[in-house]
Specification:
The complex is a heterodimer. By secondary structure, chain A is an alpha/beta fold. In chain A, strands 16-17-15-14-13-12-11-18 form an eight-stranded mixed β-sheet, with helices on both faces. In chain A, strands 2-1-3-4-5 form a five-stranded parallel β-sheet, with helices on both faces. Chain A has a five-stranded parallel β-sheet with strand order 8-7-6-9-10. The N and C termini of chain A lie far apart (about 55 Å). The chains are: A alpha/beta, B mainly alpha. The interface of A and B includes residues 3 and 8 of A. Chain A: It comes from Gelidibacter gilvus. Chain A: GO terms for molecular function: hydrolase activity, acting on ester bonds. Chain A: InterPro entries: Acyl_CoA_acyltransferase (IPR016181), FkbH_domain (IPR010037), HAD-like_sf (IPR036412), HAD_sf (IPR023214), HAD_SF_ppase_IIIC (IPR010033), SGNH_hydro_sf (IPR036514).
Chain lengths: ~575, ~80
């Protein structure tokens, strides 16, 4: 995309396409940023999101934050330090200490007011203060840079942790000041940024919009030859493949292994997808001295001569996660094209031919896995998926399924309105797609509201068995809408824990709690692209079907018709 | 340059997000919702890009409708 006009043309085309997701954006600014609208619309459309973009008034951030309705909105803030006062960039070095102090206090005060006012927004993305466009030719740091540094420090201390910070210096570095900063526009219309700035900016923020709309990737599938190591194992032999980080040739590949491991540490599942003899790759994994990525860090190895798309589809089934949460890295044009063609929902990354470029591009890998809130649960996931495989093996030993379940020593621990779990509960609403009856996405601040409000009850649970602890993996939010009437706003579970009747035992517990407070409970199944597996969940547990349409089904249950079945007594229930 | 008129129409339609059929010789800021001060800035950006020209502030004040913009463009591109 080389120009604004080109972008307008592309948008005119994209406008005709229906998008499955929507984000409601509000841009607050103290400089003119209106051209950003088209960039946001374009980038979102490419990621299957329709972006509604509205702007606050020019240079009115604090007031707009208080007055405009920000609920369920994503707020982007452009707070340009140089325009906190007309001409500040050249005036500031003339200020007395008192004057500077007063200005700093004023900005801090405005920042605090803004942070408070935006607590209801779904998401707030704000730029770190920077003086770069006005100081990049200056040898010594001046007062503007010092002020920017102090304000950033202030924000680190006082801003809510849910605000996402963007370092716009990155937007300038990528394309250079000439292509990103419009001094003429700034002097004429307070239009500081050029095409490349906006373009680079939306690339940086787009992962947050993807996460907000539930498009979160979970697994990184890596090819081996010329992706994890330099060379072709089957042809060059294991002595001649390169991944020694002390050699120029090997370092970009060693870096790739470490980049993948870094993602693994954050909870991303790592797998191999390679056309090779399995025994050859196994030998490298167990014996190669330069290898950093070890076998126990992988959730699966799909090393064979089958099409990679088929391999990944099978893997998605085995792990019980959506194939659209897979990211596939390969150096072969053919394999990448084939994946795009055969399994288009997999995100593909093509390894560039130039190894140095490969080394640079790896910076971007983490963007594919950005989450709105990371939690401790993520890091434990690999173990749980591995336990799933162990469990699957154990299952075959038992003739009947009930006997198997009893042997697991299952324990369900329920947490009610637990403020410590807010981040994890929000994360589950954003990421869970399959076992999710209503697919409501919530942010931390929204969940916090539910936890602290008597009209809502949040039931979260963890499951333990003799193989390990799943962590917090399910959530039910009850909304007491009127006296003696409640509805199930959210019911979701991670697919990792399904297949052990946990879902039934959990809901039975929740219902017995809910009917202590209410007489009549409504429930809903809302159709999404991915939740077909729960289409008849409420039927199975004897809710009464009230209405059925293309969009979903409505159910109800009266208190007298609820009776605990006690059918799952092999699952021990605790309350935290 | 015979196709200035067509190009201008196309660009205005893109910038103001309306079909080209909504734009005629007399179309001005009062006729299109998106033609406000920001719309003018966006239009200038797009025209400067497309025709590789630059507008001065005083000129921008005169760009009050399609006809006037067209005349201004023709003058600029012939000089």
């Amino acid at each position: 995309m080389n120009s604004y006009l080109e972008l307008l043309k592309a948008n005119a085309q994209l406008k005709k396409e229906q998008q499955p997701h929507t984000v409601d954006l509000l841009v607050l600014n103290n400089i003119t940023t209106n051209p950003i609208k088209e960039y946001l619309k374009y980038s979102c459309a490419v990621h299957k999101i329709r972006a509604e973009v509205a702007f606050g008034d020019y240079d009115n951030i604090v007031q707009n934050a208080q007055d405009l309705n920000v609920e369920h909105k994503t707020v982007l803030i452009f707070w340009e330090i140089a325009n906190c006062l007309h001409g500040l960039e050249y005036k500031i070095d003339t200020f007395t200490d008192e004057h500077l102090d007063a200005l700093e206090q004023k900005i801090q005060h405005e920042l605090k007011l803004t942070f408070d006012a935006l607590s209801k927004a779904s998401l707030v993305i704000m730029n770190r203060f920077t003086a770069l466009p006005f100081t990049f030719l200056q040898t010594q740091n001046g007062a503007l840079e010092a002020l920017a540094g102090r304000l950033n420090h202030f924000c680190e201390q006082y801003a809510p942790s849910s605000i996402k910070w963007i370092n716009t210096d990155k937007c300038m570095v990528q394309s250079g000041i000439d292509k990103t900063i419009d001094y003429k526009g700034y002097l004429k219309n307070k239009l500081l940024y050029k095409h490349d700035f906006y373009w680079n900016y939306v690339q940086l923020v787009q992962p947050y919009f993807n996460a907000l709309t539930g498009q979160v990737n979970k697994l990184l599938a890596l090819d081996c030859d010329n992706t994890l190591w330099k060379g072709i194992l089957g042809e060059d032999g294991d002595d001649n493949i390169g991944m020694d980080e002390n050699e120029y040739k090997g370092q970009p590949f060693a870096a790739a292994q470490y980049r993948a491991m870094g993602l693994g540490k954050k909870g991303v599942l790592l797998a191999l997808a390679s056309k090779n003899n399995a025994a050859d790759v196994d030998a490298v994994l167990s014996d190669h001295l330069d290898l950093s990525l070890k076998e126990d860090q992988l959730v699966a190895k799909k090393v064979n001569w089958e099409p990679k798309g088929e391999n990944l589809k099978k893997l998605a089934e085995q792990l019980n996660i959506g194939i659209d949460s897979f990211v596939f890295v390969d150096d072969s044009d053919f394999e990448v094209q084939m994946m795009r063609d055969q399994v288009p929902s997999v995100t593909t990354i093509q390894v560039p031919k130039n190894a140095v470029q490969y080394y640079i591009d790896q910076q971007e890998w983490s963007n594919y896995f950005i989450q709105l809130n990371e939690s401790e649960e993520d890091a434990k996931k690999l173990e749980q998926y591995k336990q799933n495989v162990e469990r699957a093996n154990a299952e075959t030993k038992f003739e009947d399924f009930a006997g198997f379940l009893e042997s697991l020593d299952l324990e369900l621990t329920i947490h009610i309105n637990d403020a410590q779990l807010i981040s994890r509960m929000a994360q589950m609403t954003q990421k869970t797609n399959q076992f999710n009856l209503t697919t409501q996405r919530y942010t931390e601040s929204q969940i916090e509201h539910f936890v602290n409000n008597a009209d809502y009850d949040c039931f979260a649970f963890s499951v333990k068995d003799k193989f390990g602890d799943s962590g917090i993996t399910g959530l039910c939010i009850i909304h007491h809408t009127e006296e003696n009437i409640a509805s199930i706003d959210t019911l979701l579970m991670s697919c990792r824990i399904l297949g052990r009747n946990i879902e039934y035992q959990f809901l039975e517990e929740v219902l017995s709690q809910v009917f202590k407070k209410t007489e009549f409970l409504k429930a809903q199944y809302k159709v999404s692209k991915k939740n077909a597996q729960v289409v008849d969940f409420y039927d199975k547990i004897h809710f009464e079907l009230i209405e059925e349409s293309e969009a979903g089904k409505s159910y109800a249950m009266k208190k007298p018709s609820f009776a605990a079945t006690n059918a799952y007594n092999y699952i021990k229930v605790n309350y935290a | 340059m015979p196709n200035i008129e067509e190009k201008l129409k196309e660009i205005m339609a893109l910038v103001f997000d309306v079909p080209t059929t909504d734009i005629n010789e007399d179309t001005g800021p009062d006729d299109l919702d998106n033609w406000d001060s920001i719309g003018t800035i966006n239009l200038i950006t797009a025209l400067e890009e497309e025709f590789d020209i630059e507008f001065e502030d005083e000129e921008i004040l005169d760009l009050l409708n399609f006809q006037l913009i067209k005349i201004n463009l023709e003058e600029k591109l012939e000089v």
